From TrEMBL, chain A:
Organism of origin: Reyranella soli
SUPFAM superfamilies linked: NagB/RpiA/CoA transferase-like (SSF100950)
Name of the featured protein: Malonate decarboxylase subunit alpha
Superkingdom of origin organism: Bacteria
GO molecular function: transferase activity
TrEMBL record, chain B:
Domain of life, per lineage: Bacteria
Domain CoA carboxyltransferase N-terminal: start-end pairs: 1-108
Stored PANTHER family: ACETYL-COENZYME A CARBOXYLASE CARBOXYL TRANSFERASE SUBUNIT BETA, CHLOROPLASTIC, MALONATE DECARBOXYLASE BETA SUBUNIT
The keyword Transferase appears for this protein: yes
Record-given protein name: Biotin-independent malonate decarboxylase subunit beta
Database matches in Pfam families: Carboxyl_trans
GO molecular function per UniProt: acetyl-CoA carboxylase activity; carboxy-lyase activity; transferase activity
Annotated organism of origin: Reyranella soli
GO biological process, one term: carbohydrate metabolic process
Keywords: Transferase
Length: 548, 311
């Protein structure tokens, strides 16, 4: 017999099994594993919430403690593989298949487990792709989510770290899945409703607050002079000529240096109000001096940042805040904003090849993609014009009639020619290719593809790939900024000279920048303590960043 | 007097000790143009060991030694460069400091020595030579003090004052430290590796600083002056401590021994620096890291440590 509501019926059975352990929607923390065993079925797609920032850590531990006789062969669909328990699930046989986006801290173990066949890999996604698939072919049967507080009806307050929760709940609750939330506290009335209670089936109160990683905090004290030089070149050689106002920054020290040069170096260049006014960006503490100096008009955020809560609350004109005054972040929406409404992505990477492909994997680590490729790509669906976008498009295709010409998003990689431990950033062949071979992956894990990259900035100069017309020119432009690496030393001097004359390569002297001027005294803040001062004491730096 | 830190960032940067190189510290600390370097970079006395590890060397092996004037009076000065191998002691680096202290021992009338520490300890690549140099330096330092020279340590660099540097600092006549300065023997990572993260979480910078940082060292008598992170403040402290440092004799050593014994009795069971501060009688001990320099100095001066008959 053909039925149209099988999922609904299954949902009622699951919910009833869980309700036996609950008082209303509330389940005691000690019963969490039993709840999961009652509600989840072997082979289910389960979304265990967690990204590069917040983690449903209590639910992760409870699931990893499940009886493998009752729960096995789960298909985990989740943003982040970050906690050890996320991989314990596969070691124990509770889970078998994995679709995910980011695996920073577990990047070594996940590579080993993939290689050892412990995990059947669906795909490594970008955040937006994974979210999209939640609504097409990876819809969760059960979502295990995390919030700050809940009331007895299940209304959830997610605080500054809303992040992925609305997206996960949307996909699960509206397709007859079960939603279980861990919360720090149960209250009579939540400060604001981030998730309406009718989308939440069960609530577990955790005995300690969920974990949040301060991933976007960069200590200005660790910024080097080489990074300052790259930041100066990016500001003078890219931000200024394109007039980039709407943008996203990566999390590296180079872009932190740019943020700290806005009120000093960029101000001296007369660029205030002309560049870097609107961001799709987490609340980077290193942006505080620029905000306080009146540079920034608006920021929408993927997630929160530990310690920035009070500062954000006091700057509602800049950030998106709820009626309770605290930040409202939303990863899916901010990723979309970064993709379609920003004219530039600028971020760092570990390896760049001769075409301009870049990757952050090494042969023993799979860190996943997170959101960088959503920012670091040219969205061909874009239709609205902006000066920066049009100018980049014109450089790429000068002969195309203007009304038919696409603009281009500026996708900028900012690096030092030698990275951590003096490993060359510029290589003939990416480690990602070796890894793909080793694991039989159909796609090498490329973070930003060569055809999306428009500029590469290093301490040696800027390569403008929009102005390169042939594969040879492109390779020579990249070699020209590869410094003293083998790739850099392999450059053709004559061709590089021609590229410099055309502006396809610009060395510091071509930009009127003296490398000796790259000094830490240019930084608007040189320590985390300086950032606290700039914030008027509103920024509460996490303990691990406080050298006082 | 303000109680909370309110200094604006730009003011702080006029002459940050923390941000300066060893050479800039020496140049700006001493009377203008008075510094004469011994065995300068042009002599190219470099480490004989680093080639073996394919590591870069520096022409001065990461330490500047020489003679100059402070407030119109002559003294010897040594400054470690914390940005070269973490200011670590190698064979040549150590020998330059030993030689300077022996010069102080042999100079009549005695003139003071300033040591601008900025070191993680002994350079692992030349461990034996480095360890030997630590004991040679301590011996030379004690001989110089016996001969009447006051040896004052200034600590506020990026690499702190760790390992053998912490031991040498312990033999100085007096120490000045800034907020960012750290003084200890075992570093945070070493403690965590040997005793576990429950004993000491090396990534918790706040814990590291309230344990080893300038404020706690000042409050428990591990340093004699607490100064702002400016070269001017270190200069003033150097002048003051040269003036005030106690003579090196048996009475002083006995007093110091008694002070340390009593300190261990009073604070030995404290699990955290905040417990020590509370027991020291500081009203709101948790607020100590956030106090302005003036407010903190007032509190530190009221606390019992150090007593100037000791050290």
């Amino acid at each position: 017999m053909m039925g149209w509501n099988k999922a609904q019926a299954a949902r009622h059975v699951r919910r009833a099994a869980g309700a036996a352990l609950a008082k209303g929607k509330i389940v005691e923390a000690r019963d969490t594993t039993r709840l999961l065993e009652a509600v989840i079925r072997p082979g289910d797609r389960v979304c265990l919430e967690g990204d590069n920032q917040k983690q449903a850590d209590l639910l992760a531990r409870a699931l990893a403690a499940a009886d493998v006789g009752k729960l096995h062969d789960l298909h985990m669909v989740q943003s982040g593989v970050v906690l050890p328990e996320h991989l314990d699930l596969f070691d124990k046989g509770i889970a078998r298949k994995l679709d995910y986006a980011f695996s920073g801290p577990q990047s070594t173990r996940i590579a080993k487990m993939l290689f050892g066949g412990k995990i059947e890999l669906g795909a490594v996604h970008t955040y937006l792709e994974l979210f999209a698939r939640y609504f097409v072919d990876l819809t969760p049967h059960v979502a295990l989510i995390v919030a700050v507080s809940a009331d007895r009806d299940g209304n959830l307050f997610t605080g500054p770290n809303t992040e992925d929760t609305p997206t996960v709940v949307e996909a699960t609750a509206f397709h007859d899945g079960i939603v279980i939330a861990q919360v720090n506290e149960i209250v009579d009335k939540v400060p604001r409703v981030d998730i309406p209670g009718d989308r939440v089936d069960f609530i577990v109160k955790s005995d300690k607050p969920f974990y949040v990683e301060p991933l976007f905090t960069r200590d200005p004290g660790a910024i080097t002079e080489a990074q300052i030089l790259t930041a100066m070149m990016a500001i003078k050689g890219i931000y200024a000529p394109y007039g980039v106002k709407r943008l996203n920054h990566g999390i590296g020290f180079n872009t932190a240096a740019i943020e700290l040069l806005l009120p000093t170096y960029a101000e001296r260049l007369g660029l205030k109000g002309k560049i870097a006014t609107r961001f799709a960006l987490n609340p980077h503490p290193t942006l505080i001096p620029a905000i306080e100096s009146g540079w920034v008009e608006q920021i929408h955020s993927f997630g929160g940042e530990v310690g920035m809560e009070d500062y954000i609350r006091a700057r509602p004109d800049i950030f998106f805040t709820g009626i309770d005054g605290s930040l409202r972040s939303n990863r899916a929406i901010c990723q979309t904003a970064g993709l379609y409404a920003c004219d530039m992505f600028i971020g760092s990477t570990l390896q760049i090849d001769l075409l301009g492909n870049s990757s952050t994997v090494t042969t023993s680590r799979i860190a996943g993609f997170g959101g960088a490729p959503n920012m670091g790509c040219d969205p061909h669906g874009r239709r609205h014009p902006s000066d920066a976008w049009l100018l980049a498009g014109k450089e790429a295709a000068p002969d195309m009639p203007a009304p038919l010409r696409r603009g281009r998003k500026l996708v900028v990689q900012i690096v030092e020619s030698f990275g951590d431990k003096n490993v060359p950033t510029f290589v003939e062949k990416l480690d990602a290719l070796d890894l793909a071979e080793k694991l039989n992956l159909e796609l090498a894990p490329i973070m930003v593809y060569a055809d999306d990259v428009t500029h590469i900035v290093s301490e040696a100069g800027i390569a403008n790939l929009l102005l390169c017309r042939t594969r040879d020119e492109r390779e020579q432009a990249i070699r020209a900024v590869a410094g003293y690496t083998d790739v850099g030393r392999g450059r053709d001097k004559k061709m590089v000279q021609q590229l410099r004359e055309r502006g396809a390569v610009r060395w510091p002297e071509d930009l009127g920048i003296d490398p000796l001027d790259a000094d830490r005294s240019l930084l608007a803040a040189r320590s985390v303590e300086d950032l606290v001062h700039w914030s008027g004491g509103l920024y509460a730096a996490p303990s691990r960043f406080r050298n006082w | 007097m303000t109680d909370q830190k309110t200094v604006t960032p730009f003011q702080r940067h006029t002459s940050s000790w923390y941000e300066s190189s060893a050479r800039d510290r020496v140049r700006l600390l001493l009377d203008a143009g008075s510094f004469r370097e011994f065995i300068g970079p042009e002599a190219r006395e470099m480490s004989p060991h680093l080639d073996l590890f394919d590591l870069p060397k520096q022409f001065d092996d990461g330490i500047v030694v020489g003679r100059g004037m402070l407030g119109g009076k002559p003294l010897f000065v040594a400054a470690q460069e914390g940005r070269f191998m973490g200011g670590a002691f190698g064979e040549v680096h150590g020998a330059k400091l030993t030689g300077l202290l022996r010069a102080a021992r042999d100079t009549r009338p005695a003139i003071p020595v300033l040591i601008l520490f900025d070191t993680g300890g002994v350079r692992l690549q030349e461990a034996n030579a480095g360890e030997l140099s630590i004991s040679e330096i301590m011996r030379a330092l004690v001989e110089a003090r016996t001969a009447g020279a006051k040896v004052v340590g200034l600590i506020g660099g990026r690499s702190g004052c760790y390992g053998g540097g912490g031991l040498i600092a312990g033999t100085c006549s007096a120490l000045a430290v800034s907020e960012h300065g750290r003084i200890a023997v075992s570093g945070p990572e070493v403690i965590e590796t040997n005793r576990g993260i429950e004993e000491f979480d090396s990534k918790d910078k706040s814990l590291v600083w309230r344990t080893m940082g300038g404020r706690n060292r000042r409050l428990i008598g591990g340093a004699d002056a607490f100064v702002d992170d400016t070269i001017e403040a270190f200069r003033a402290a150097a002048l003051l401590l040269i003036e005030r440092a106690p003579a090196f004799d048996l009475d002083m050593l006995k007093a110091e021994q008694a002070r340390l014994t009593e300190r261990l009795q009073r604070f030995g069971d404290c699990a955290d620096a905040v417990d020590i501060w509370a027991r020291e009688g500081i009203a709101d001990a948790r607020s100590v890291p956030g106090l302005s320099t003036e407010a903190f100095t007032a509190i530190a001066d009221k606390a019992r440590e150090p007593r100037y008959d000791a050290r």
